[in-house]
């Protein structure tokens, strides 16, 4: 039964979830909030949705770029390089981004008679991004349930697993991760040095996947 809407960025995690839950997804939504890498990610989201026959829409959230503070919104040179850890990546937080996206997705879901909103946050995000943590997701799901006639809830199946685990799911599904985007700098190729590139490399390696990504540093 197609009763779900998915928030799909075009990154590894959301593309994996898109394929894993394709039988239940009626609509996929990408949000363009003016980040360095939005224009690299979103075409991949569109590509995968077209292949799977899932309707895909892009919603502009330009106000986030105009009024929010984050290195994701300031240009490639503002993105920190090095490991994906708390202090190094804290500047990449876009305040309450998932809360805003989930709220909009909830309204769209109810407008289309859908019951669930899928999001691909995972355990590795928790230390850095408050709106990826289980406590937030559970609270937001409860708020959505109480604030809609349909009792819409969030389905976030990757909340308690790592990015390596997500990559293992993708391996079983036969996903070509060359057709996803991670790098926060948003250049022609993945930089290979920022936290998300490092995390991508580690996840693919630990999942036993030969990395198909083109990196600038290689």
> Quick one: overall form?
globular
End-to-end Cα distance, whole Å, is: 45 Å
Largest sheet: 5 strands, parallel
* Classification by helices and strands: alpha/beta
Unreliable runs: none
Give me the secondary-structure topology.
Elements: E1 4-7, H1 12-20, E2 25-32, H2 38-52, E3 55-60, H3 62-67, H4 86-89, H5 97-111, E4 116-118, H6 134-146, E5 153-155, H7 163-173, H8 195-206
Parallel strand pairs: 1-2, 1-4, 2-3, 4-5
Notes on the protein architecture:
The protein is of the alpha/beta class and 218 residues long. It is 39% helix and 11% strand. The chain has a five-stranded parallel sheet, with helices on both faces. The model has no long low-confidence stretch (mean pLDDT 91).
List keywords for this structure.
218 residues, alpha/beta, five-stranded parallel sheet, 39% helix, 11% strand
Short description:
By secondary structure, the chain is α/β, with parallel strands linked by helices. It has helices spanning 12-20, 38-52, 62-67, 86-89, 97-111, 134-146, 163-173, 195-206; strands spanning 4-7, 25-32, 55-60, 116-118, 153-155. Helix 2 (38-52) links the parallel strand 2 (25-32) and strand 3.
């Amino acid at each position: 039964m197609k009763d779900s809407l998915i928030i799909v960025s075009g990154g590894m995690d959301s593309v994996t979830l898109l394929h894993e839950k394709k039988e239940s997804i009626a609509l996929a939504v990408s949000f363009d909030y003016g980040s360095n890498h939005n224009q690299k990610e979103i075409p991949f989201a569109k590509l995968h949705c077209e292949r799977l026959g899932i309707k895909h829409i892009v919603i502009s959230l330009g106000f986030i770029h105009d009024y929010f503070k984050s290195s994701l919104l300031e240009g490639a040179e503002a993105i920190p390089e090095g490991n994906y850890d708390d202090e190094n990546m804290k500047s990449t937080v876009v305040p309450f981004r998932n809360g805003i996206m989930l709220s909009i997705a909830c309204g769209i879901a109810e407008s289309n008679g859908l019951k669930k909103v899928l999001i691909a946050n995972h355990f590795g995000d928790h230390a850095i991004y408050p709106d990826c943590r289980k406590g937030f997701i559970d609270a937001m799901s409860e708020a959505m349930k109480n604030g809609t006639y349909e009792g819409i809830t969030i389905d976030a199946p990757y909340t308690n697993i790592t990015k390596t685990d997500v990559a293992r799911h993708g391996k079983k599904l036969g996903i070509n991760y060359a057709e996803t985007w991670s790098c926060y700098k948003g250049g022609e190729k993945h930089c290979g040095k920022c936290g998300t590139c490092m995390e991508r490399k580690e996840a693919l390696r630990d999942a036993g996947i030969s990395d198909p990504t083109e990196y600038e540093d290689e």
